[in-house]
Amino acid sequence: MYDEFDDEDDLxxxxxxxHNRVRRRERARSKKRKKTRDDSVRASRDAPTVGAVxxxxxxxxxxxxxxxxxxxxxxxxxxxRAKQRTALAVGDDVVVARDPSGVDIVVRVGPRRTSxxxxxxxxxxxxxxxxxxxxxxxxxxxxxxxxLRPRLVxxxxxAIARGGAQPLVVVNKVxxxxxxxxxxxxxxxxxxxxxDVQVLFASASTGxxxxxLLEAIDGQRCAFVGHSGVGKSSLVTALGSQAVAGxxxxxxxxRHTTSASMLHRLPSGxxxxxxxxxxxxxxxxxxxxxxxxxxxxxAALAPQCGFADCTHAHEQDCAVVAAVNRGELSTARYDSxxxxxxxxxx
Length: 346
Ligand SMILES: Nc1nc2c(ncn2[C@@H]2O[C@H](COP(=O)(O)OP(=O)(O)O)[C@@H](O)[C@H]2O)c(=O)[nH]1
Ligand SMILES: [Mg+2]
Ligand SMILES: [Zn+2]
Known about the structure:
Elements: H1 16-37, E1 49-58, E2 61-66, E3 71-76, H2 78-82, H3 84-87, E4 93-98, E5 104-109, E6 115-120, E7 123-132, E8 136-142, H4 150-163, E9 166-172, H5 179-193, E10 198-201, H6 210-216, E11 221-225, H7 232-238, E12 262-265, E13 271-274, H8 288-294, H9 296-299, H10 319-325, H11 331-341
Parallel strand pairs: 3-5, 8-9, 8-11, 9-10, 11-13
Antiparallel strand pairs: 1-2, 1-4, 2-3, 4-5, 6-7, 12-13
Helix pairs in contact: 4-8, 4-11
The structure holds guanosine-5'-diphosphate, magnesium ion and zinc ion (ZN).
Zinc ion binds near residues 305, 315, 318, 319 and 320.
């Protein structure tokens, strides 16, 4: 379960200092939570309700926007709060009760079209939904500083396939690399293009690729995900997003590091959810079937394998292994597959 870190060498064990800091923060947060839990929020029965979309989530709270553009700072009903990590995410359609006391309360979360979820990095038995109801998940990597992590991209692609959204890979910071390095990166990206995943090269600094990115997400709601420091927030800004005023982020949190996912509306009409950078991205309860379905290039060969339930790992007469050996399948993708296979349940 721990080898989800794979090629992220620098992340192989978070330094304990960071761990402790995270724990201290969590403890402080849960104390705060306890304080508010007792005056348990319940909307009075006759409170009028309104539909809204969640644009930001905090501990026990959320900001949601109604169809008419009204921004509501909400608290969460006890039932929603109890399962907050899976029950509520940016992009969720919610019903907000407007209590006569002046408090807005999220009382229901609507069904999801799509979602993206991961293992909770603090608790490997817990799923955490990152975003809901997005059309496209944009997996951002960088050409350098930090270097591209193809195995992390592969894990995201599996998570996206499970959640039902479309994937798009963006390699940002191409201004930092020269021609030959660019060609190497293009060769790495060919693996994804070969399985029909669109890949764009971009630079939030020079503006390269920004038009193409705007076009690719035109009219959609999308989420930007990826490792910290790859330039997700910079890309969102380059796409023309104005900082969202009056949001949770203004209250005592850092401005330069994205600490919570937040939905922005672009001048083009597209909606973009900027998410905090991750250090790790693990898959929650991945099944072999989901894994097979996500690696479409392997699935296409499976009918030619000797065993109907071939896992393409150690079996005799495996068409996938044969294709890898002949150089017809990417060894990098096959390696990602094997690493994930080792983490599946059955
Ligand atoms: N050279 C270069 N630097 C960039 C580019 N995009 C972002 N950066 C820098 O990379 C750092 C991290 O960017 P940020 O947007 O905060 O990354 P995030 O953590 O993914 O949101 C910042 O110092 C940015 O100025 C780019 O296209 N080229
Ligand atoms: Mg950011
Ligand atoms: Zn096989």
